[in-house]
Amino acid sequence: MFSKYFLSELAYLREMGRAFGLANPGVAGMLVERGADPDVERLLEGFAFLTARIRERVDDDVPEMVHVLTDLLLPHYLRPVPASTVIEFTPQVKALRGRATIPAGVEIGARPLDGTSCVFRTTSDVELLPLTLEEALLDKSSVTSPVLRLFFQAHEQIYPEIFRAEGLRLFIHAELATSALMLLWLLRYCRGVQVNNDFGKSVQLGPRAIHPLGFDRDFRMLPWPRSAEGYRQLQEYFTLPEKFLFFEVRGLDAAKHIASDRFELAFQFERPPPLEARVGQEMFRLYCTPAVNLFSASAHPLRHSVLSHDQLLRAEGVEPRHMEIFSVDSVIGLQAGANERRTYRPFFEFAHAAGHGVEPAFYRLRRAASPIDDGIDTYLSLETPRDVMPSIEEETLSIELTCTHRSLPTRLQVGDVHLPTITSPTNARFKNISPVSRPARAPLGTELHWRLLSHLAVNQQTLSDVEVLRRLLELYNFKGLTDDLAARATRLRINAIRSVEVRAGTRFLEGSPLRGNRVTAALDETSFLGAGDAFLFGCILDELFASNVTVNSFNELGIRLQPSHMEYTWPPRNGSQLTL
User: Are residues 287 and 301 in the same domain?
Assistant: First the structure.
């Protein structure tokens, strides 16, 4: 790359210098003559070398400034998207005497690859119970409607722990086309849920007892800054759509007076779901949670002096080609011969006013494509404000990181994530029951320039424009940079949005009228894996529109599938709130 700059500057000196001399003989007439003096040629090459360095530095600063702006305006965008999967815990029911909670953040190890065991961190709490799902079937013998029947066995008489208002979590485990279709039937075609015991007694729950857990704000899969939740849902959907296949059956406390060791949950459908796969026990799983390939690590200590600049960060105890930095969590400096600690803050944040008597100290990160693989390397340098003299004392930097295992998890299969760590539970077995998704990264080159500009432009436009909506969705299609098959499937879904119609409307929020929009998106059903897949995509669009609604307004989304002409609508929303 540098030789290109050098040759360009040398050619400019010789060719454009001669042209300038011919046009201005009184000012630069000597540039017209071509000399053969080697000393003059050496001078020209030296000038070309210096100006080439300046050009290279200027060009390097442009993406660096774009990275800075992206970090400020879209702090989530430059972070790598880690590999992810779904972990199932199998409790030792005979050892449980009540409810046991596995907290979010538990780490599970994977089968070693090239000497490294990838670590996956769970993203939600899992409540273990001495309860098992014994059987699941779709009963089509009912005259009025088909019934999905789930049969449970309680191994301890802890009925208040099972029959409670908070609900029982289930995960739909099947191919995406099948599981998304089952989710659609549970959310839109279920007339009610009936709780039956072995003694012929039953309690009827309404359809609202089924709650889609994957869209809750506290069921997030990725660490996320304070920015629009719709973007998080969008990125998680493109990363691991299985995350949205969790649901809860709530309000079971209404059936606690008929509690027994064996009981049944009967989901009464309006009509049979067009499933190609057989409904069985393996389709519905208890005690599952999403997990992401993130782990905490300390960086190799850095020796920093006033001459240090852009030091490469590496995690201790991890092969460099098997780690990538997701975030820098803390930077603390220890001066040689002193017991004082200095905490460094990110340089490009809105908190440069230090406290009284505290010398401001900041660090700056630079991300760059790795020269050895398709990963991203992170460099750190220390900064001080212009009016503060940098310290001349040498420091040792203690740095805490959150990392991924780079592209290594792509070689893992179903069942490979099953090894215990120091934080793993001892009262349950565990393994991943879904394929491990590929990690993805935002582009860092010139493509990031237009992506940032496009994102800023979208923020100033309305999503009711179909081209604007498609462009925003494409901005989060990171897999398109590394996985051609996944990129093609995602692009098909994005381009399936044929049109967007908007009508003004009025709704009430806490007794006050709100003006807002009723948005109807026409989707080409043939671009999806079926009606369930299209419905799940519509759920993501609903989250995206709701998070982009303006203050004192609302959005009400509907989708119309073509060519089946099926329509689905969502309640009017003002951000995370439902209107009347």
Answer: no
pLDDT given for residue 498 in this prediction: 94
Please give the Cα distance from 493 to 523 (Å, whole number).
9
Is 424 among the domain residues?
no
Tokens of 422: 């120091």
pLDDT at 388: 56
Q: Cα–Cα distances in Å, from 84 out to 229, 251, 398? A: 19, 31, 29
- The whole domain housing 384 covers 295-404
Write down which residue in 23, 41, 73 finishes a domain.
Answer: 73
**Which pLDDT score is estimated for 580?**
44
189 and 152 in one domain? yes
Q: Which of 275, 292, 309 is the last residue of a domain?
A: 292
The answer to the question of residue 326 being in a domain is: yes
Q: In angstroms, rounded to a whole number, what is the distance separating the alpha carbons of residues 78 and 260?
A: 52
Q: What is the pLDDT of residue 382?
A: 85
CB 364 within 8 A of CB 383: yes
Quick one: tokens of 509? 């929020």
Cis peptide leading into 38, omega within 30 of 0?
no
Q: Taking Cα atoms as reference points, which of 191, 193, 173 lies closest to residue 183?
A: 173
Residue 212 within a domain: yes
CB 212 within 8 A of CB 57: no
Residue type, 34: R
In this structure, the answer to whether residues 194 and 68 fall within a common structural domain is no
Number of domains making up the chain: 4
- What angle do helix axes 176-188 and 531-547 make, rounded to 10 degrees? 70
- For 456, what's the count of Cα atoms within 13 Å in the CB-facing half-sphere? 12
Residue type, position 332, single letter: I
Q: pTM, whole model, 2 decimals?
A: 0.85
Q: How far apart are CA 521 and CA 24, in angstroms?
A: 64
Ranges in the chain, pLDDT < 70: 1-3, 5, 12-37, 39-41, 44, 52-53, 55-64, 143-144, 227, 305-308, 337, 350-359, 384-393, 445-446, 460, 480, 575-580
Which runs of consecutive H residues, i.e. helices, occur in 146-200? Answer: 159-162, 176-188
- Residues 58 and 46: their CA atoms lie apart, in Å, by 19
| Residue 23 three-state SS | helix
Which pLDDT belongs to residue 356? 47
Report how far apart, in Å, the C-alpha atoms of 367 and of each of 229, 251, 399 are. Answer: 25, 49, 16
Give how far the C-alpha of residue 104 lies from the chain's centroid of Cα atoms, to the nearest Å.
Answer: 17
- Closest to 560 in 3D by CA, of 573, 548, 552, 569: 569
Is residue 7 located within the same domain as residue 54?
yes
CA–CA gap between residue 335 and residue 547 (Å, rounded): 46
| pLDDT of amino acid 147 | 94
Structure tokens at 405: 């295992």
Rounded distance between C-alpha atoms, residue 417 and residue 400, angstroms: 25
